[in-house]
Amino acid sequence: MKDAEIRTDFSRGPLEQLKEYFPSGLYFSLLRSAELLKPYERIEELRLRANSYACFTVGGQGKRKNFTTSVFFSEDELREAFNFMCRGSLYAYSESIIKGYVSLPSGIRVGVCGRASVEGGRIIGVYDISALNIRIPWSVASLPEEILVGIRANARLGIGTLIFSPPAQGKTTCLRSLCRFLPLGDEAMRVALVDTRDELSSLCVGDRLSLDRLVGYPKAEGIRIATLFMNPEVIICDEIGGESEAAAILDSQNCGVPLIATAHAPNLSALMRRRGITVLHNARVFGSYLSLRIGEGGGFCCSAYSWEEADRLVCGDRLGIDIY
Questions:
Q1: Could you identify which of 29, 165, 207, 232 might form a hypothetical disulfide with 71, taking C-beta atoms 3.0 to 4.6 angstroms apart as the criterion?
Q2: Which residues pair with 292 in a beta bridge?
Q3: Domain range for residue 220?
């Protein structure tokens, strides 16, 4: 694949992607702090808290650590930075803020927390923002080609794949790899991407990609629309797992289009204990499960499991067998 075929911002440094979201003085202070990191340490997250020092979460050589900078953020400075990120209109982002995040261009996701306004047990607004967690995407890691080829072979047979890992172990990066691999080349497939949080589509742009993007759609509704009207050969979507969501996805999956999705779980046993996943498993929405971790060299370590292997864990759990 030629680099020119996929237009991304990864050629820029990790902090340079954030330059437009900070007043210049604060941005250059963060840049100077980043120069103190070791050459092999890459910035994965930038955490900002009101009346506190900014903190980097960095990875490298198979290790992850938190590095406190000398850059102090007052409440006003945090508010100003967040206003920059929302392009001066918090109202335009209110729905996603209530859900706990804001999506920025280039696949950057910002976790948001503050003071919630609750009515009838439902969050209707978030005020007095106190902390932001900015997750910075990287394109360094990519799934091994044999894994990509295997997922494609399964999809051609109508077999879906569920990719799982603990947080920050590369699930989103993995989906980006698939969004660039499956719809490109002599064996390109028609791919529909349901990008609920707008983390993927802006990084998977190319005039040779056979890729249709449904951005901001609820997962089940996006899957339904893609299945009925876009005639995809495979559907890709981000994190799933809730019971109500699983039931809705199941309704949308009756047409037989294979689904590639991700879920949070530390191991296969824990994954199979999630009720929403069990519903989809019993319906054979996924015929393959892929465990993912980032190795010491920054690449992926993968373990694949068949439907039958996963089902043994489900059956063992029903019988009260210790499967750990």
A1: 29
A2: 302
A3: 145-318
